[in-house]
Amino acid sequence: MGITVGHLVGKDLYREVGRRLDRSSIRAPWNDALHRIVRAAFSDAEADLYVKLPYRLSSLGRIARISGFSVDQARPLLERLADKGLVVDSLIGKRMHYMPSPMFVGVFEYTMMRMGPDAQPEVFGPLFAEYLEEGDIFAVNCENGERVSILRALPYEDTVTDTVEILDYEKVSEIVDSATNFAVSQCSCRHEKEHAGGRSCEAPLEVCTTFNRSADYLIRHEMGRAISREEAEDIFQRSRDLGLVMSADNVQQGIGFICNCCSCCCNLLLGISRHGYPNNVVTSNFIAQSASENCKGCAKCADACPIDAIEMAAPPTSSGEPPKAKDRRPGIDQDLCIGCGVCALSCNFEAMKLVPRKQQVLHPETTFRRIILQCLERGTLQYQLFDEPNKVSHQFMRGVVGGFLKLPPTKRALMSDSLRSRFLDALESHVKKRLLKPAAP
Predict the structure, then answer these.
(1) Which of 1-5, 67-71, 410-414 has the lowest mean pLDDT?
(2) How far is Cα 69 from Cα 1, in angstroms, rounded to an integer?
(3) pTM, full prediction
(4) Which CATH class is domain 10-139?
(5) Cα gap 82→217, rounded to integer Å
(6) Which helix (H) or strand (E) holds 408?
(7) In this predicted structure, what is the pLDDT of residue 441?
(8) How many Cβ atoms sit within 10 Å of the Cβ of residue 147?
(9) What integer is the mean pLDDT of 225-252?
(10) 424, 372 in Cβ contact below 8 A?
């Protein structure tokens, strides 16, 4: 049976795809570069279904009911969209469920991870580079001091002060031990820079490591290859040797991935160092500290810092002569340091260590909670709560609730320690009941 594209055609249809991307957990501001990305990524039929998908994870039957596509029409389109990384699919119970991919982690990463003859990295690399270089996506997601990002820094365990205990979810060793299956993919940022002409490092390309359901998704859609636990451990050891930043899914439970990032290619690190948004990556619960009595002033820590958070300086001399290089000591920008420990790896004199931050960083417990908190911060939660795109009652409620949630007192209350847990508990309970409800006959 043929598929008839709805009333939105041409430029209007792809502009609506852009609106859908901008209503997710990560905002995606519209410009000419994004227009060209979505035109290259979607066919007309795929775009028509995409803009009619419910915003939340949904079964094929629910998607058919809401979109107006038949099951037989929707299934192959959803499978193609999932192969492209434009839709995420997940087996829940005995039914496959689908949801639109956000820009990060989603459309960008999966597009640049794809393998095979139809992947077209030479097309998408320059397009994404142009979109990211403009910096609008970092501004719209970070300019109001948002605290819930998709990525958090992992501390290198041996750079943390010996007397301090590291929580299990911040230990690479514990994350690997608790995982059951693994995959490795091309680093999307490095791959993008390679095709856009902006890569200046020799870090390996195949280093993005995923676990469990995330690994299953990438393997199933040929965006990664299955590896053993030992191979995953080898990747992390190599990253340590190269002084790469290890960054993980910003959750405590069900961690889906660990990135191994370089300062010249990683777009989220560049969001800090180039575009000036320190909250683009969530810090670990540690911060760098220098032991000046051991420091030799070599500046290796400053050179190694991936976000330029360390500056070497020397006190003025009593004679008025210029200070000597060996008298310089590292000054650490407390507002920039992400607590990764790369600086300490470079120090040969044990003069740099990670110490606990004065205030503990609260990382979301689960992916669901992270997404809800991101949407609340970015003003898009109403699309998750009332997720049928064209249902009149949902459109009305999105307007009412969206306006209410944007009020600063409301947002502050729901993000506060006193209300946050109860708010998230109630939403999580509702969604679980819906997802696990038996299919209608």
Answers:
(1) 1-5
(2) 11
(3) 0.91
(4) mainly alpha
(5) 9
(6) helix 408-415
(7) 39
(8) 13
(9) 97
(10) yes
Q: Does the domain made of 286-356 have the CATH classification 3.40.190.10?
A: no
Give the per-residue pLDDT at 438: 55
Between the two ends of the chain, the Cα-to-Cα distance in Å is 24
Task: Render 311-356 in DSSP notation, one character per residue.
Answer: EEE-PPPTT-PPPPGGG-EEEE-TTT-----HHHHH-SSS-EEEEE
- Domain coordinates in residue numbering, the chain: 10-139, 143-280, 286-356, 372-435
Q: How far is CA 306 from the centre of its chain?
A: 18
Does 82 have pLDDT greater than 60? yes
- pLDDT tens track for 146-157: 999 999 999 999
Per-residue pLDDT tens over the stretch 168-204: 999 999 999 999 999 999 999 999 999 998 788 889 9
Within 10 angstroms of residue 316's Cβ, the number of other Cβ atoms is 9
For the beta sheet containing 245-249, the strands, ordered from the edge strand earlier in sequence to the opposite edge, are 151-153, 245-249, 257-261, 206-211, 182-186, 225-227
How far is it, in rounded angstroms, from Cα 187 to Cα 207? 6
Beta-strand pair 151-153/286-290: unpaired
Higher-scoring residue by pLDDT: 25, 5? 25
Nearest residue to 382 via CA among 391, 390, 392, 372: 372
